[in-house]
Automatic annotation (TrEMBL):
This is Kinesin-like protein. The lineage of its organism: Eukaryota, Viridiplantae, Chlorophyta, core chlorophytes, Trebouxiophyceae. One of its GO terms (cellular component) is microtubule associated complex. It comes from the Eukaryota. Residues 1-106 are annotated as: Disordered. It comes from Apatococcus fuscideae.
Amino acid sequence: MGVCCSRPPIEGDQPQALPGREGPGPDKTLHTADSISSNKSSSPIRVKAGLSDSPSFKVQPGNGRSSLFKASPVKTTSPVKGQSSPKRSAKVMPSEESESTDEITSVPSEQFTAAFSPSAVKVAVAVRPMLEFESLKGATDCLKLKPPHLVTLPPLRGGTEEYRFEYDRVYDMVETRGDDALFGELVAPLVARVLQGFNATVLAYGQTGSGKTYSMGSTADPQQLNGRSKPYGVIPRALVTLFEGLQQLQADYDVATKVTFVEIYQDDIRDLLRTPAETAAGFQPQARMVLGSTETLPKERGINIRENSEGTFLDGVREMPVRSAMDAMTLLQRGNSIRVVGAHNMNERSSRSHVIYTIQLNMRKKSQPRSSGRPTSGPAFLRSKLHLIDLAGSERQKDTGATGQSFSEGIQINKGLLALGNVIGALTEGKGRKHVPYRDSKLTRILQDSLGGNSETLMVACVTPSSLSQEHTIGTLRYASRARSIKNQLRRNDQDLKAAMTSALSTIHLLPCTIQHNGVANVNEYFLTSHIDQAGSNILEATLRGRQLYGAQLPVPPGYECHVLERQQQPPQHTGEAPASWQSTASASSITYWKHDIHPAKTDDIPRCYEWLKLSEQIAADVPWQEVEAAVHTSQEPAATLP
Ligand SMILES: Nc1ncnc2c1ncn2[C@@H]1O[C@H](COP(=O)(O)OP(=O)(O)OP(=O)(O)O)[C@@H](O)[C@H]1O
């Protein structure tokens, strides 16, 4: 097995000849593939080779043109107006304004190509129907909705003033009308943005039992997608719309789509895409894997939250390639089957963890687009993420009656939500306050980009109409109201290769380098590593026989994929030859660039570092053996040895 790395064809790109080294030669750097997710869970992944014996490069020909893409139009129904369910719930007053939402078209992408643009967090309120257990307890409906923006509640005991809140949208979630309107008006436009290379987040917040999981469709059955009617819930509908959009895009772009799915349970991040065997063995996918290691990957390595120039990401989480909404839904279902849930007085299937389902797109302009007669402008690389988040519900012990394990889970849930509230508070406190306490919990660290960072964000505040929960509902509505003042800084992720290298170089130039040696070692001789937490920079420290190395983590640039390849020998055919092919057994989302003496020259190591990245047309696609061989012969560095 080896790590196969090459670069994608980009317009005007030249093979990296690495001329005129000013700094150290190839013997003074190491590149290691990080955050590797295995495509083969059952067999251990073994990686061979350092710089000298493994890299292979595949440079695809072609210098073609392609056009700007457009997200596919999404048909939606009109918003709910002036109607309430006989069965339900909140009273709905006639709409103050009517907006046509019949067709959602993508926003012209040119508007967003340059710097960051401010984007306020949007908030929708979703009111679920009254449930039987609430009616039986004598609850009355205490919410009045005045679509599209207002919700009012009567005064609380002893008070005289009614409560009035204004949001981007308010929805009565009775039957499917609320779902249609929520999706069409607020979620579908976000999906369109994701297809244009912007990050987006949909976050469901609210009291326990208020309908977050239901509204998000987190537990939806994938078979819904085969039915005649539209699937219910934000996640299934977003996936369907996303893949419809991708189908259009694929005329001009190669797209790789990956899913990650984690839960935060008692401030511990767990991978929900681990296999049943791994679950049984208490296994978490490895935190990172190093190129050159010849050892079986360690088990039980945690998932770490890391930052790079593109924002926060989860290192060590399993990334699963998906090619359809059905694939993505199947993973959602698989993850949900191991999510921690429990019963209490307010919900017989209460989520005891926050879950974050993320779909990542990597889009690379095709060298030979299938569409014709379209303009030739448009970014070469785009990458984006859609986070779909179903938070655990805030809860009060007197309502839930939770005891024992469930009680302590409730405390942890509230703690995480409090930290989230503090972040929202800090972000909306006006100009004086500088510190935003993202680091107070894993939830807030993961949400750093979604709240105050590079993401277009929608919070769906879920509430019950029950008068028995009115006080708690007012709390939720206040929380959500505050979130509306958060201003994110949105930027299209259309960085080209040159820009990626330049920003990586500036990071590397800051690194201290303290040791010298003459060659490339088996990387497993270097490690244990430890993370040095320095303001804003992601620096790792490693030791080689008592000497110090410093490394910087670099994201795999847009449009690239980094794979660990295993050579597959096939049965001899009638020619008598046994052909071989390379198959991806693991992929990495970042690599670590190790340095140990002097600063690299611009023409030196970083370009070569990127040479190590393997672009595949589609994740996990086989790489023909001949191509790997040919690339090795043209690009491989001479072997170097340790002193
Ligand atoms: N729009 C809706 N129509 C009908 N029933 C609903 C709706 N929304 C929620 N429910 C019902 O309300 C109950 C609680 O919903 P759900 O589990 O989604 O709440 P939750 O906010 O995710 O709770 P928790 O935080 O405890 O996990 C479920 O029985 C669900 O079926």
